[in-house]
Amino acid sequence: MIFKRPHFTEYVMARLVTIAILLFISFSILLVLLSSDGQETVLPITLLALAFSIFIFFINRGAKRMEKELTIVNKYLLKLEKIDQIDYQARFFTQEFEEINQNLIKALKNAKKREDIKQRYNAKLKLKNRQRSDMLSAIAHEFRNPIASIMGYSQTLQDDPDIPKPLQEKFLSKIYNNGNKIESLLSRLILWNKFESGEATLHKNPFDIYTLAKEVKLALEESYKNREIRIEGSSRIVDADRTLIEVILKNLIENALKYSKDEVIVQIGPESISVTDKGVGISQKDLDKVTKKFYRSGTHNWDNSMGLGLSIVKTILTLHKSKLEIQSKEDEGSTFSFNL
Questions:
Q1: DSSP secondary structure of 222-268
Q2: Which residues contact 49 (CB under 8 A, 6 or more apart)?
Q3: Which one, of 249, 278, 250, 246, lies nearest residue 262 by Cα?
Q4: Residue ranges of the alpha helices (H) in the chain?
Q5: Other Cβ atoms closer than 10 A to 318
């Protein structure tokens, strides 16, 4: 048979009653021995028995009350990770039990706080995993077309060595342009990874942003021939990271070139810099989402390449304590502007 430990009251009463009986018998024998008349000892022994009974009664009540408090404490411990709050309004008999109660309340609050932190961490982890999956999907989507073009043109050149010289040059130009596109996508991924890991730092220096805009224009006109990029405004010196501001201008102008057929206007004003196109525009439901990482529009008229372009722009501007302002209407065009 397995030994069962007694409850608190049972343990106290068993010890107390045993000691009380032994003391009662000892005092009763002592009274009888010291008394010359046996009848005179009846009253003292009776009073002694009554006193021990009253003493045992009050000790029993105290023990039961303490046992009840211990039971409440045990309930706390059993439900520590399940209950939202402690509902018991127990008035504890001793200071020690009251302190235990307060400590348990603190422990419960800390446990709930840890559980909330754990849930938030799990939610962030799920979001990161979903973003990673979206990123891989976006990378596959963006790299597939230029790689397929390079392979197609290369295969054609390899299979037919007698292709006319002008056509060969055209195919080689296509291969070169698609290679540049892949290099640009890789650079964007590397830059985004630096921002995510916190490795990107600002290297501010004064420079003329009007001159930088003209340099970006010349570079993009090589890839977007027969397209007009108009720079308006005048020389303006800003104190910023020239390399990162170049990334901003290139992203915004290239987006404008992709999603419009008319000229793209870059305005260098005394307060703000803006890029305006008369293209497909962005729907109102997409307007607040286009700068989010990995966001891709569900429509075909506007698509944030890999969901990183405008996210990178937003991050760079945040580092410069600025922000991207977007004004757009579908089928009318868009204006992207920022202050430095």
A1: HHSTT--EEEEE---EEEE-HHHHHHHHHHHHHHHHHT-SS-EEEEE
A2: 24
A3: 278
A4: 8-34, 42-78, 95-159, 165-197, 209-223, 242-258, 284-287, 309-319
A5: 12
Pairing of strands 264-268, 272-277: antiparallel
How many residues make up the chain in this entry? 340
Q: Which domains occur in the chain, in start order?
A: 8-110 (no CATH), 127-197 (1.10.287.130), 205-339 (3.30.565.10)
Query: Tokens standing for 262?
Result: 């008319």
pTM for the complete prediction? 0.53
Residue 37 CB coordination number (10 Å): 7
> What three-state secondary structure class fits 275?
strand
Q: Provide the CA 17 distance to its chain's centre, in angstroms.
A: 62
Instruction: Return d(Cα 243, Cα 237) in angstroms, integer.
Output: 15
How do residues 72-129 score in pLDDT, each as one tens digit? Answer: 767 766 665 565 555 555 556 566 666 776 777 777 777 778 878 888 888 888 887 7
